[in-house]
Amino acid sequence: MPDSAVILLSGGIDSTTTLAVAVDRGFEVRALTVDYGQRHRIELEAARRTAAAMGVKEHITTALDLRAFGGSSLTADIAVPKNRGEADIGRGIPITYVPARNTILLALALSLAEARGDRQIFIGANVVDYSGYPDCRPEFIAAFAKLANLATKAGVEGCEFTVEAPLIALTKAQIIQLGTRLGVDYSLTHSCYDPTPEGLACGRCDSCLLRRRGFREAGIPDPAVYRPFED
User: Could you list the mean pLDDT of each consecutive 10-residue stretch along the chain, which spans 231 residues?
Assistant: First the structure.
C-alpha cells in the first residue's frame, strides 16, 4: 500500500503543482479545500476540477467563515490592490494577507491527517514569488511541524508528522515548468483575487501579475481567461 498524505488544495498554481509533486512521489493524496469566505470563492470550483483531474483518493471541502474576523481585502469590503510594481509586491505585507490563514488551514489539515492516520502534510507555500506573506516562510513551516508533533496524540505517541512545502524555494516560472513536466493542466486552475462575477481574472491584482509573469518567464502560454484590459 502506498503512503497517503493530506494536501491543502486551493485550486491555484502552487497548490495544484504541489498536488502533482505528491502524486509523482507515489503518495495517495487526500485533498482539503477550505471555504473561508474568500472574495475569490470561484477557486473552490478550481480545486474540485484539479482534484478530480488528478485522481485524489478523497477531496474534502469544509467551511470556516473568516469574514467574521475580516482584516483582509479577501475577507472584508476592502479594495484589492491593483497594478502594483514588482518592487511593491515584494515589499511589506499587503492587505490581501488574511490574518493567520495558513496557520488555520494547516491546523485543519493536521486534524484531518491525524483522523485518517496520515503522517505527511503538503502545502504549496512559496517564499520567492510570494506577496510578502509571513506564513509562507520556511521558518513558519518548520515551526508548524514542531507544533504538530507536540500538540497531537499521534505525535506524543511517536507517530511524527512531516509538513512539506516542496515549492518553497522555486520561482513562479520554475513552478510552472515543473508542473508542466508533471502533466498539470493549468487551464483548470484559478489565481485571481478579484475575479468578475463571470469568473474572468482581473489581470491586475498581485496574484494575476505574478501568474502572468511566471508563465511569460517559463515560456509557456497562460491558459487563464482575463477580462479585457489594455497592457
Answer: 90 98 97 97 96 96 97 96 83 91 98 97 87 87 97 94 96 97 98 94 95 97 87 47
Partners of 179 in the beta sheet? none
CATH 2.60.40.10 fits 4-218, yes or no: no
Q: Report the distance separating Cα 174 and Cα 167, nearest Å.
A: 9
- Cα–Cα–Cα angle for 198, 202, 208, rounded to 5 degrees: 125
Strands of the sheet with 162-164, listed across from one edge: 58-63, 28-35, 4-8, 120-122, 162-164
Q: Nearest to residue 155, comparing CAs of 165, 164, 144?
A: 144
